[in-house]
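Methods — Computational structure assignment.
A single polypeptide chain was analysed. Its primary sequence is given first, followed by the predicted tertiary structure written as structure tokens.
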Amino acid sequence: MVRLRLLRHRELSKCSAYGEDPQSSDGVAEVGERALVQEVRRMALGLLATREYASVELVGRLESRGVPRHLAQRVIAQLAEEGLQSDERFVEVFVRSRLGRGQGPLLLRAELRARGIEDTLIDVELDQSTTFWIDKAHSAALRHFKVVPRSREDWAAQARYLGRKGFTSSMIYAALGDQRD
């Protein structure tokens, strides 16, 4: 329904409104543009009401609903100025959520980059001590396997699991101990 309204509005704005030139001095095009911006803002706020979004992610969502990229970017920039959309806040919430799932720094970094987050924001949030990440790796392995590795096969299975979760090999060796003998 929203997409239909936007498309209808876009088509009406291309043709002359009531037989008048869209660039006429009576402001018909300006009123239509303001109404479109308000509709896009309402859509963006509706999305942000459910969860935090990165700005790039939010632009993509609005585009999928028929909003032109330049308009979506303009509205999101306004929302960011007002503090209603924040990439910093998104990164905080995202990292906290994924840490609860036992994900490591490599996977977190890759997922945040895929969502259009700048490396500087990622570095600020993932800048933890090595012992922090080793503890996270150890607890992720224990939560999944319920026991510490007792054989080389157990160790290898847990190491592969932690590797898929985004932990570095040095973190894995520190978390599981060295059972390569």
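Note: The radius of gyration is 24 Å.
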